[in-house]
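ARCHIVE CARD
Drawer: 12
Card no.: 0347
Subject: one protein chain, sequence and derived structure
Cross-reference: see card 0346
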Amino acid sequence: MQQLQARYGKRYKWWVMLTVMTGTMTMSLSSTIVNVALPDVMETFPVSHTMVQWMVTAFLASMAIGMLLNVWMVDRFGPRVTYMGALLVFMAAALAGGLAVNFSMLIFVRVVQGLIAGMVQPLAMLMLYAVFPANQRGQAMGLYAMGVVLGPTAGPVAGGVLVDWWSWRAVFLVVLPFCLAAFYLGRTFLSRPDSAPPVHRRLDIPGLLLLGGWMLALLWGLSEGPLSGWNSSAVIAALIAALVLFLIFTRHQLRSLAPLLALRIFSYKGFTAAFTVAMLTGAGLYGSVYLLPMLVQTAMGESASAAGMLLMPAGLAMALSFPVIGQLTDRILPKILVTGGLVLFALSSIVLSEASADTSLMLIALMAALGRVGLAMTMPPVVIGAMSIVPQDMINQATGLISFARQFGGSLGVMLSAILLQENTLWTTSLGILPGFPGYQDAFALLALLYLIGLYPMARMKSPGQTAT
């Protein structure tokens, strides 16, 4: 890294930011671009709400696992090789998604894409943390977050146009040029491994299997509940299996010499609170990104392009807020920003929970933008706060865990939203009427409740400068 810093001088840290932002934007683009294509996918491969949501949930859940794999990958292969290899695999998966012949293949592609995106996101934060001085890290995280959000912001807009003009398959293929650009930047600006040998850290394969097992059992049980009935033996068995596997996973991690998830990090005062707030933030972010296009397309009868355009002001508002929030994070207590963000998002969700056929698209767009500003107020402060709690040698684990919390929370937010939509669909179908707004109203009310609940752990979140225990 010293050679590259000598070559590019003070500009080097900004070249690194551009490099990691390009790769992460590409993968975050994939996290939302499929949302506006879900109704078309439901027609191509006849599936229900709780089935089609797996295209989102599978991505988010596997992304959460990939974030924990990041620690082992970086130790074993180094940041540069991990980043470059991840881009190659992601490109192959995108091509396979565009050529998918059945719904199962789409789910497999989304699992692979999620794993890769999960490995890259905390890796990007780690690289920025290394090249920016301490007094600029809040600003760096804010700018990086702004760039990352531009991907999900452009995703629904580009996806809507591509779906209307061509096919849902285009939402997979469109990321390929951006992956190639990210690969070139990585070769140019990411430092090569030094002469030190890689760290041969053992991968916790049993922990990985247990983690994937309890997450899959939980999410499958929740998705199957509306279809098979919550009292069915299969659903009850899945939820019990999720609990048992989770307990076994926790015990294994506490006893393992090389755990996948360093649970001892939760012993630092305030980290549990930061983890909880990050999880609730993810539930609100991805839950609302899933709900809004479906609301506009299915309940209000608008096109995919209209649904995508509706989300653009919200994404821009969030992206433009991040640099300001990043600078404020370096100056004022994170708790103040997080409190304001939680309240703003809850208020926007409450308004959206009253959506009906008479609600204007302008009001929906405005409330979506207000909610995104609230989300922007929570994300950089939580990351910086969590990283300030732990020792220097645990920063990588801290970033991975906070990112894991956000993605796992996102998968739960999407799943719970899909359950409410599916329950409403089944209820209205049984009455012989068309599905309408009640499911969406209930889902937005749930998101508002989650953010109000988040005020409690936020009050216990440690601020930078406090003494860790």
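Annotation on reverse: Residues 444 and 452 are 13 Å apart (CA to CA). The first helix runs from residue 2 to 8.
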